[in-house]
Specification:
There is one protein chain. By secondary structure, the protein is an alpha/beta fold. The protein has one domain: Arginase, Chain A (3-Layer(aba) Sandwich). The protein is built from ten helices and eight strands. The chain has an eight-stranded parallel β-sheet with strand order 2-1-3-8-7-4-5-6, with helices on both faces. Helix 9 links the parallel strand 7 and strand 8. The longest helix is centred in the C-terminal third of the chain and has 21 residues. It starts with 20 loop residues before the first strand and ends with a helix. The protein binds manganese (II) ion.
Length: 294
């Protein structure tokens, strides 16, 4: 059996040099605080990816014609600190945020985003992070993982970027609001999105700068859509709300990198979460394809 790839595309559409989309599997879960399984996410997403139809239902055209290259998975390190350092080194060596590429990293727990955001922030001035997530992830430190915990990943992002817009948030601590008072205005709750989608979207686009790193935790979805996550929270966003938000952000901003994290396959033949993650990646590709035109 060969290496697992996102879709099983012909060489013409899957060359490292020419592909627009670079899939980077990061099967790490050394920094999770509740249910495990996120290390099996990337493989599960790749496994189901070629079950999708190759045409996007909205554009009526294939979403992958700009090429999709799948990197080898980053082997998990033995400590959260080493994992973060490894991801940073790989991201620099592979030049993941080159302007003619769009990297989509597949987690793994959410701690994998911090090193990617750091490398993206070195390359792009005035980078914002837009986070779709149930959780604020703003604790300065949490065990296991300490400062590199998945519950601290957005605190680490705020070490290197000024603007963090948090969408779908419905779980945060009092400490978050004390340490990051600015985030009170930068939380967009599921209720705001449900009550007035366009108004909520306008706030997201107004708060974020032109250059954006987009991080999507699968638990932003309602657990009915994505039950296989490490920390499920009721009252999440619908499939349509998330995909519309993602399409609008990619259309309006220069999204320089994306990750889709915290897929923890349920197993036993229930592929609903990894399949949703694969379809979300396809929707992300469609959005870039539409933006860049033909
Ligand atoms: Mn989360």
């Amino acid at each position: 059996m060969g290496k697992k790839t996102f879709l099983k595309l012909e060489p013409e559409y899957s060359s490292e040099e020419t592909a627009l989309f670079h899939i980077l599997p990061i099967p790490y879960e050394g920094a999770v605080s509740f249910l495990g399984g996120a290390s099996r996410g990337p493989d599960a997403i790749l496994d189901v990816s070629d079950q999708m139809e190759y045409i996007d239902e909205r554009t009526k055209r294939p979403f992958w014609t700009r090429g999709v290259y799948t990197h080898d998975p980053i082997p998990p390190a033995d400590t959260p600190a080493r994992e973060v350092a490894t991801i940073e080194n790989v991201a620099r060596r592979l030049d993941l945020f080159r302007s003619d590429r769009r990297t989509i990293a597949l987690g793994g727990d959410h701690s994998i985003s911090a090193p990617l955001i750091r490398v993206a922030a070195e390359k792009y001035q005035n980078l914002s992070v837009i986070q779709l997530d149930a959780h604020s992830d703003l604790r300065d430190s949490y065990e296991p993982g300490g400062k590199n915990s998945h519950a601290s990943v957005m605190a680490r992002a705020l070490d290197v970027v000024d603007t963090l817009v948090q969408v779908g948030i419905r779980s945060f601590s009092e400490e978050d609001l004390v340490r990051f008072p600015k985030q009170v205005d930068n939380f967009i709750t599921p209720e705001q999105i449900e009550d007035d989608f366009d108004a909520a979207l306008a706030v997201v686009l107004e708060r974020a700068t032109e250059n954006v790193y987009l991080t999507i935790d699968m638990d932003v979805f309602d657990p009915a859509v994505a039950p296989g996550v490490g920390t499920p929270e009721p009252g999440g966003l619908s499939w349509r709300q998330v995909t519309r938000l993602v399409e609008a952000v990619i259309s309006a901003k220069n999204v320089v990198g994306v990750d889709v994290v915290e897929t923890a396959p349920l197993g036993g033949g229930n592929i609903i979460t990894e399949y949703a993650a694969a379809r979300l990646v396809a929707k992300i590709m469609t959005a870039f394809d539409v933006k860049f035109g033909r």
